[in-house]
TrEMBL record:
It comes from the Bacteria. This is Pentapeptide repeat-containing protein.
């Protein structure tokens, strides 16, 4: 179940990590790219034209990146929208993708925290948050939502409190 929840399915994604996100030329990326701008190596079918040579050509950062399933979720929500021709819709798609990235990262952190030796009450809270985060990540929302922002803030505060308990 977790594998399915967190597995990226690039075959069902509009190349969002290669478009929505920015990166800077470094030892992980070979050129500068602005957020919202398709990478120069992204093909029309959303495949990477240098996929087999990413490391060799200095794009190890691409190889290491994992959207945890945010890409196919955002793409599914916008499948019937004309985001290719309408930049306003494309901006909404990219914003939703960015929020889904955070939701999936939070979701994974809350799942991983199941192994922590903390009081049962904290695990109850963790499960409640996990449910909320999962509901937001699996919703059909087309826009970054205030509800998702709120649950992300709650999750961040909870993880901080867990770290404090573990450090005590
Ligand atoms: S190099 Fe390939 S994987 Fe990296 S951003 Fe460009 S198209 Fe995507």
């Amino acid at each position: 179940m977790d594998e399915i929840v967190f597995s990226a399915d690039c075959s069902k994604c509009f190349g969002l990590c290669c478009t929505a996100l920015s990166f800077e030329r470094s030892n992980r990326f070979g050129h500068d790219k602005l957020a919202g701008q398709p990478c120069q190596y992204l093909a029309d079918d959303f495949r990477c034209r240098i996929h087999e040579r990413l490391e060799d050509l200095g794009y190890g950062g691409c190889d290491a990146f994992d959207c945890l399933g945010a890409g196919q979720r955002a793409s599914a929500a916008f499948a019937t929208e004309n985001w290719r021709r309408d930049t306003a819709i494309a901006r909404r798609l990219h914003a939703r993708f960015s929020q889904l990235l955070l939701l999936q990262e939070m979701r994974q952190a809350l799942v991983t925290a199941a192994n922590l030796d903390v009081p049962a009450e904290l695990h109850q809270r963790r499960l409640g948050l996990l449910q909320r985060v999962g509901d937001e990540a699996d919703s059909d929302d087309k826009d970054a939502t205030g509800a998702a922002q709120a649950v992300l803030a709650d999750g961040k505060a909870f993880l901080k409190s867990l770290a404090a308990v573990l450090a005590a």
